[in-house]
Amino acid sequence: MRREPDPMTRTFIVTATPPTPNGDFHVGHLSGPYLGADIFARYQRMCGNRVRYVCSADRNQSYVVTTAERLGKNPDRLATACHGEMRQTLEAADIRMDAFNMVDGEHVAFVQSFLAKVEANGHAVRKPWRFPYSVAEDRYLFESFVSGHCPVCWSPTAGAICEACGHPNDTRTLELVSSSRSAGDIDYREVEIAVLELERFRSEFTAFYESKRGIWRPHVVEFAFEMLSRPLPDYPLTYPSDWGIPAPFTGLEGQVVNVWAEMLPGLVNSTRIAEGEKATGDGSETGLWSPRRQAELVEFLGYDNSFFFTFVHPALAWAHGDCRIVDTILTNEFFELENFKFSTSKGHLIWARDLLRERDVNAVRFYLALANPEYQKMNFTQSAMDELVEVRLSRPYREAASGILEAAAALGLSGQRWRIDEQTAARLGGVLARFARFHEIETFSPQRIAEHLSQLLVRIAAGSRHALSPRLARAEAIEEVRYLAGLFQLVLPLVTRPLMPAFSDRLGEAFARTATDTWPASLAGQECQIEAATYDQALAAWVDQQPALRRAS
Ligand SMILES: [Zn+2]
């Protein structure tokens, strides 16, 4: 039976850019959209909202082919193996998606019929397109098959998008074109393909991005207006290639669907899987993505993919006619390793699974949030991670727990039970509200969540020392310690839940908290008791899981 939705309940479709299954996740990937979307989804669920966090493996990327060629592997088997590894790494990182599916027959049928509707609406326009062609490789060069320099910022880049500036290029605008795989000669051949004319949607785009000024992160809005300052490019919906989904357009047999055009219907299909809807393979059935349904679409992506999500996908949705466009895009900048870009091909990387094997998942999530490249690029080093986790989290956590115990013992509060009164509940509620702010869409910031968590622990430790001050009246000291215990026992398991769910579970267990999966309206009336045994268990919840980080002090 379908339960009637509560009118106050919001429904969120949360996406993170489908990763290319040509390798496992490295730490740079993890710090980007996947962790952010997970924190957001977990918080919204605590608020009682309905969330579908969806993603998939982007199997048809040309990068799967070029990586397989480099490794001497079969691309199909490589993609399947990497999808399995990625699934395990997401699990090890406590990142829970509602769908992380692989391309299958249903996906293919859905994408094809979605794009057939785009064509039926007159938006798959046939145009001649000039492609570089490698005679030695016997293929047209685009995306990962081609390399050159960006026409906007001059960085070395592959085809389609420049990682450095996020601007699109195509096989006609890329400078100093060569094959990425061989040194042989290239010639140019003209092929008729289907394109989406982005310029047709100029007025929709202009109104849309005007409405996002000052609301979305500035880099992506600035990018949109720079794009709008010039004629918008035609976007290829098909490429002459044999790797990908056969184009569903008559006369273009032998071409495949551009993966970035495949991605939007792919995400719609993943959402249908997450919703447990029956497979119809009918791309006009957009389910939760239909604008007629109540839902909000929140997309997490690396800044370098902005063009696809800010121009290609909205234009495709408008061209389709029954597909929602994004409400909020949350971009991240690059996370670098020792001041250079993570690079799988150059071996300059740390695999996420290796880091998660050597370090506790909660420490990894805390650090990736604290050092999150939200507005500018950030730098990862293993030594900085160890030091920051110790100084900003582990040590203040130990000092907060032992400080409360000592102060309670000195004031004769040990073992006493009490209930949180309205006044203390209001103070604790203020702390919860501060954390809530950085979990909400408009002010979402894992960096500030981690910062505030660290500062809260430092504040608790300082409060416990203050309570022992001889200048303080006994009643005031007791009130302070009870407030600190409320923060530690009641607030901490809640505010750590989206960021460090496994730690929150252990902490909640130590204090016999059963309702840590709900963000409460008030903590008034909740019971507290300061007992040495439970605080020891709480200390063990963190310290015992951190053998690698426990160092001589
Ligand atoms: Zn560029």
Automatic annotation (TrEMBL):
GO terms for molecular function: ATP binding; methionine-tRNA ligase activity. This is Methionyl/Leucyl tRNA synthetase domain-containing protein. PANTHER family: METHIONINE--TRNA LIGASE, METHIONINE--TRNA LIGASE, CYTOPLASMIC. Coiled coil: none annotated. Belongs to the class-I aminoacyl-tRNA synthetase family. It holds the Pfam family tRNA-synt_1g. One of its GO terms (cellular component) is cytosol. PROSITE patterns: AA_TRNA_LIGASE_I. GO terms for biological process: methionyl-tRNA aminoacylation.
